[in-house]
Structure formats: structure tokens, C-alpha cells
Amino acid sequence: MLTETGVNTGVFTGSIMTVSAPAVVLNDGTIQVTSATTVTASYIDGIDANLLRNQARTDSVANAAPMMALTKAVSHDSAPPGSEIIYSIAFRNAGAAAAHTVVIMDAVPAFTRYVPGSMRLGLANSSYDAAAVLTDVADADAGTLNGTLIMFLIHSVAANDGVDLSGTDEGKVFFKVVIE
Ligand SMILES: [Ca+2]
Ligand SMILES: [Ca+2]
After folding, report:
1. Mind listing the domains of the chain with CATH numbers?
2. Fewest CB within 10 A of the end CB: N or C in the chain?
């Protein structure tokens, strides 16, 4: 259904729902699009502003959205009580638009204790030692310890640059725990 934007403007708008879901239902009036898809509408313009009739037109709308993926890893699969292990969570934006205010949360695992001041934020290929030190308190940096919840707030993650392990479209956060 198209609606004219005003009285005799000759400009019409319309919308069709979009959704990203695993199941596709045919003829349900919904467009299934993935990130970075361009949707093109072709139509016949019955009469345009110059009074030309039945002109073939094509309009396109680019659909771009962020698409975040996280991968968690641990430095040791098993370790004796008292030893420190490092958790890392790699984040990556596989979408065609920047992601804003990305919050990564993790809980201190059972039978471990968080190592105070051990949160770090680094580049995708960063080691723990090379990553920036974050404080546990809620302040201007990305890290906050809230009880046993570890939180990282990343203000902006750029759109996918298509290059693995580099760029501002990805990065890594870290924290340490001690096995009890
Ligand atoms: Ca902090
Ligand atoms: Ca990249």
C-alpha cells in the first residue's frame, strides 16, 4: 500500500516488514533480508511531476546493520587450585554498519575468584599483556566489576572491514580468575 506524502505531491511512501529469521514463509508480505542487502523496487510511475505518463522507475534501499559475534577462550583447560587463568572474549562486527554501545558481560565462573584489576581491552590480535588496563570501578574506561559480573562497555565497533584480526571492527577483552 502506497500513501501520498501530501496533497498532490506525487511522492508516495510505503513499507514492507523485514525480518531476519531462520524460517522463510512464502507470500507472508515480509521481506527476509540479511545485513548489507540492497532492496530494489521497480514500478511504473503513472504520471510524474513533469506530466510524463507510465514511466518505468527503480528505487533502491540499502539495508545495513551491525552483526556482533563473540568467541570466548580460556588460557588453560584445567589448572590446579591457586593458579591463575585468563579468559578472553573476542568480539567482531560482521555487519555492514557500525555497532554502538556494545556491552559484553560475563560472570566469574563457579569455584574461581576474580583477580582484582585484571580486566583488559585490546585489539583482535592482542595478547593479555599488550591490552589496555581497565579499572574495576565504574568510570570512563570500558571495564566495570559489578559483584561477580564482569562488564565491558565498548562505545563503537566499526563495520566489518573484511580483514580478519585487524581493524576497529573487532577486538578482545580479558579478565583473570584464580582457581579455588
Ligand atoms: Ca573501570
Ligand atoms: Ca577486521
Report:
1. 3-63 (no CATH), 68-179 (2.60.40.740)
2. N
